[in-house]
Design goal:
By secondary structure, the chain is α/β, with parallel strands linked by helices. It has helices at about 40-45, 55-65, 85-95, 160-175, 195-205, 215-225; strands spanning about 1-5, 5-10, 20-25, 50-55, 70-75, 100-105, 120-125, 150-155, 180-185, 210-215. The structure holds iron/sulfur cluster.
């Protein structure tokens, strides 16, 4: 599998194991989407010379050698499910070692049933119209979500919040028990303070106990570290 970077960092998005938890982050290159607020274009369209190739077994050996002790692994991108077979094999190897895994994906692929279990928290970053990529979202995973999983909506324009409420209603129709919906500003909250105020009011108005207001933690770390994330 092609890998852009493996590093120790903090769990960025809300997952079953919270934000800010130390995790070994496996960043995989390439993405099938081009969201207009994407802040990881270096992963979406990477310089091939910066990528490393491993088998899933080699990657787990590297984690065991360079990052032990570790309990949590975050597989992110880009879009990890472009390498679905390798992600499946890697996750299974990690779960067999009693690790807990977060898989962050963009909502355009179904989840992998064989690695959808209590040791794996799937985080779907569902793309609304403000991203420019809503047309390729799939609802195949809506009925499969458990409360170990999360659906995150990055809000880029006002109408995205209303659209998110519609998607939440659609998910509730097929999966009434699911209640982990996350809304975040799509942009750096420092640059978008007005949007943050607006989003806060919309969440209060919506009065939906299933909605979690959230800031992606890497944006805050970047803000307080003079632009550098780690
Ligand atoms: S899905 Fe994520 S990585 Fe891909 S273009 Fe959109 S924001 Fe960037």
């Amino acid at each position: 599998m092609l890998v852009y970077l493996v590093h120790r960092s903090f769990q960025d998005k809300v997952s079953a194991w919270h934000q800010g938890r130390l995790s070994v982050v496996v960043r995989l290159p390439y993405c099938n989407l081009r969201c207009n607020y994407c802040d990881v274009m270096f992963l979406v369209d990477p310089d091939r010379s910066k990528l490393s190739e491993f088998t899933p077994e080699e990657l787990v050996s590297l984690l065991d050698r360079d990052f032990a002790p570790y309990d949590f692994v975050t597989i992110t991108g880009g879009e990890p499910l472009l390498q679905a077979d390798d992600v499946k094999a890697l996750t299974q190897l990690l779960v067999d070692r009693s690790k807990r895994v977060v898989i962050e994906t963009n909502g355009s692929f179904d989840l992998i049933d064989e690695i959808h279990n209590d040791a794996v928290s799937w985080v779907f970053n569902y793309k609304l119209s403000g991203s420019g990529e809503n047309a390729v979202m799939t609802n195949a995973w809506f009925p499969k979500l458990t409360n170990n999983d999360f659906v995150q909506f990055s809000i880029a324009v006002d109408s995205d919040f209303d659209e998110a409420l519609d998607v939440i209603a659609e998910i509730r129709t097929v999966n009434p028990e699911f209640e982990n919906f996350v809304v975040s500003p799509a942009f750096d909250p420092q640059q978008e303070s007005l949007m943050m105020q607006w989003l806060t009011s919309r969440v209060l108005e919506a009065n939906e106990s299933g909605i979690i207001l959230n800031l992606e933690i890497h944006k805050l770390i970047r803000r307080y570290n003079d632009g550098s994330e780690h």
